[in-house]
Amino acid sequence: MARRTKVYEGKAKVLYEGPEPGTLVQYFKDDATAFNAEKRAVIDGKGVLNNRLSEFFMSGLNAIGVPTHFIRRINMREQLIRAVEIIPLEVVVRNVAAGSLSKRLGIEEGTALPRPIVEFYYKDDALGDPLVSEEHVIAFGWASQQDLDDMVQLALRVNDFLSGVMLGVGIKLVDFKIEIGRIWENDFQRLIIADEISPDSCRLWDMRTGEKLDKDVFRRDLGNLADAYTEVAKRLGVLPSNGKVMTRPTLIN
Ligand SMILES: Nc1ncnc2c1ncn2[C@@H]1O[C@H](COP(=O)(O)OP(=O)(O)OP(=O)(O)O)[C@@H](O)[C@H]1O
Ligand SMILES: [Mg+2]
């Protein structure tokens, strides 16, 4: 096989040039980082689980008409995606107080919020991804007012979809983060969901026990991260019933 061109290597994923123009191959690594990469580890099998879970959520979103970058899974660690121009914002939706919201506003973790709250964080590792307002987004030209309206709509649709899917398997969707990108079709631009949707980018609590099934297990040293993600994947039926994760890339089709 011809050697592929690496386009970008981040903390959790690598992007390669795709087979056709306008496509990329997204490779999921086993690396886990938290607190702006101050804490790091390699979690065996995490990349495989996130590749499958992100496929599951993104293809579900595509199916209900919420556009995403996901085209198809290639193997255990890679998926084919549409290349987008990433809007430099992390879009966070919160249903229950946790993490930085609890810290910043002194609201106890676990407090239900009166309605879903959408927040924007400027993607800049050197600044620690600071919270910004719509005023900042528009003044600094990161997105237009129309983009912002579209982003809020997309984020809330993702929230409804993910909340419902998780509710069905006894998991509460506390909050999540998405990235959104622009694609051009003829002369028109459109916004679609990009990056990944996985337990790395969501807070997921077991509805019965309150057990955390997301990256907080790693951030707060609460146990084995791969076990938590495996539990999510098993409940959603995206893992073979024996729960075995093949950690080496394996061609599926
Ligand atoms: N469809 C896409 N087209 C182009 N870039 C994408 C797409 N989906 C995700 N990306 C970008 O690919 C990178 C994925 O790598 P990773 O998540 O490991 O990065 P990261 O270390 O979190 O860094 P960053 O701060 O850039 O997000 C991110 O920069 C993300 O914004
Ligand atoms: Mg990332």
Automatic annotation (TrEMBL):
Pathway(s) this gene product operates in, as recorded in its UniProt entry: Purine metabolism; IMP biosynthesis via de novo pathway; 5-amino-1-(5-phospho-D-ribosyl)imidazole-4-carboxamide from 5-amino-1-(5-phospho-D-ribosyl)imidazole-4-carboxylate: step 1/2
Top EC class for this record: ligase
GO terms of molecular function: ATP binding; phosphoribosylaminoimidazolesuccinocarboxamide synthase activity
Entry keywords, A to Z: ATP-binding, Ligase, Nucleotide-binding, Purine biosynthesis
Annotated Pfam families: SAICAR_synt
GO biological process terms held by the UniProt record: 'de novo' IMP biosynthetic process; cobalamin biosynthetic process
Enzyme Commission identifier(s): 6.3.2.6
Gene3D superfamilies found in the cross-reference section: ATP-grasp fold, B domain, Phosphorylase Kinase, domain 1
Reaction catalysis annotation: 5-amino-1-(5-phospho-D-ribosyl)imidazole-4-carboxylate + L-aspartate + ATP = (2S)-2-[5-amino-1-(5-phospho-beta-D-ribosyl)imidazole-4-carboxamido]succinate + ADP + phosphate + 2 H(+)
Occurrences of domain SAICAR synthetase/ADE2 N-terminal (ranges): 6-235
Assigned protein family: Belongs to the SAICAR synthetase family.
Protein name: Phosphoribosylaminoimidazole-succinocarboxamide synthase
Taxonomic source organism: Rhodobaculum claviforme
Biological classification of the source: Bacteria, Pseudomonadati, Pseudomonadota, Alphaproteobacteria, Rhodobacterales
Gene name of the record: purC
